Fold:
Amino acid sequence: MSRITAYIQRYLFIIRFIRKNPYCTLKAIQEHVEREFHNHAIDNIGTSTGVIEKDIREIRGLRVDIEYDFMQRGYYIPATNEPNGYSDIERILDSFDVLCSMGGDSGVPPYMLPEKRRSRGTEHLLPLKEAIKEHTPVRFYYKKFYPEESAIRTVEPYVLKESRGRWYLLGFDADGNHSVAKSFGLDRISDIQVLFPKKFTPQRNIDWEKKYEHCFAMFTDGHPQHVTFFVDHRDGNYIEAMPIHPSQRLTRTNEGVRVELYISVTLDFIMELMSRSWSLSIIEPLSLRERMREIYQEAERRNS
Structure:
């Protein structure tokens, strides 16, 4: 394992230990990191208390809030409003952890079976990131899923967003309507060109996070509303482990689990509900219950 990989692993050990053991001492963190280096057969690149203190400062620079409580005399990570309580950098570090476990540059061992899937377009992340920073338009060949058509697009890039295991570029058609934002799945982009030295003047009043605040996945049509449905305990356990939306509230009964959300009812959300069809019962709104009933009736007709 390279030294850089070992440094990042040390970050992971520190973050996870503090999250699981709030108000832990510097000594406890240092001893934990030493044990983890030994357990993972990682060459010890330094685990002194001075090294751990330096790591904590650098981790804070990555926007992971590690605080010290002088009353409790220990380190802790404050609760956040992020889904599952995890920051963006922690999710990235999780992916790095998976990569290390799978062998890194030595190849995937035969006892690990990663999912086989086509490229997610992550090779486009770096050039798009630079284009966004420099306010430079991009041009690429794009294949839409529906309707099925392909075209060359010239886009003013603003944001890169991850959703449901896919990355998307958010922005505006360079020669189109600048009041309507567009999203482009990176897995459907090819032949990308960053159009240096061209520049565009970005709109400064767009709150991209708020735009998707009440949405599931990428569809933004529709208005948020209260949605309540009921599932059995098995489906409820899966929904609890991987929440549908940050607004999610669960109530357990003897019969199953009541799920309450404040969310926009979009095609993406309906498809997510259908994945729980064997125990799903829509309580409100009535319009959603009727929509689901129509989908099931049409499916029954096709399969009868």
